[in-house]
Amino acid sequence: MKNILTICLILFAMNVNAQEVNKKIHDQTKNKDVLINACTRAGITSFPEFKEMYDPIYEAYNPDAATIIEIKKLIHNQKIKIVLGTWCGDSKVNVPNFYKVLDALKFKEKNIEIIAVDGNKKSENGIIDGLNITQVPTFIIMDRKGIEIGRIVEHPKTTLEGDLLAILKK
To answer: Using CA atoms, how far apart are residues 91 and 100, in angstroms rounded to an integer?
Structure first.
């Protein structure tokens, strides 16, 4: 009986801590449906408002081949956190372009975390607390230990791949 109770408590705790992935809410600030919290690439690329721009923008972007070669020499087990708004014009342009860069690098999906925020740039359950998100998208580049080494905020200073290379060269 004690073992069954322990298992039930563990399952309850796991369920309480589990977050719904690709969660859709109606955002009062933007007066539209948006994604919130942890998302997957499949989730954001199938969300109607985001998808309508994602596919053509992704196809049209051509990362600089020489810069990609340089990045490949420097990128080793880094992690990337992408904080975006499915309602945000800059997210709709720069997230597909950033994914085009990551795909050119053959960057592992398991090392990418996507977090969607509402119109107030907030998420639920404190998952962006401490990240100092003021604009979206924000691409946070971290070392293998999860320590931030740099970020691209809203739009690149040069190109996404150029800014990523500059961060990795630090």
So the answer is: 14
* CATH classification for the domain delimited by 21-169, as one of 2.40.30.170, 3.40.50.360, 3.30.70.600, 3.40.30.10: 3.40.30.10
- Give the number of other CB atoms < 10 A from CB of residue 133: 22
Cα–Cα distance between 124 and 82 in angstroms, integer?
16
Residue-by-residue pLDDT tens, the chain, 170 positions? 555 544 443 444 444 345 799 999 999 999 999 999 999 999 999 999 899 999 999 999 999 999 999 999 999 889 999 999 999 999 999 999 999 999 999 999 999 999 999 999 999 999 999 999 999 999 999 999 999 999 999 999 999 999 999 999 98
* Pairing of the two strands 79-84 and 32-39: unpaired
CB 53 within 8 A of CB 96: yes
Contact 32, 24 (CB under 8 A): no
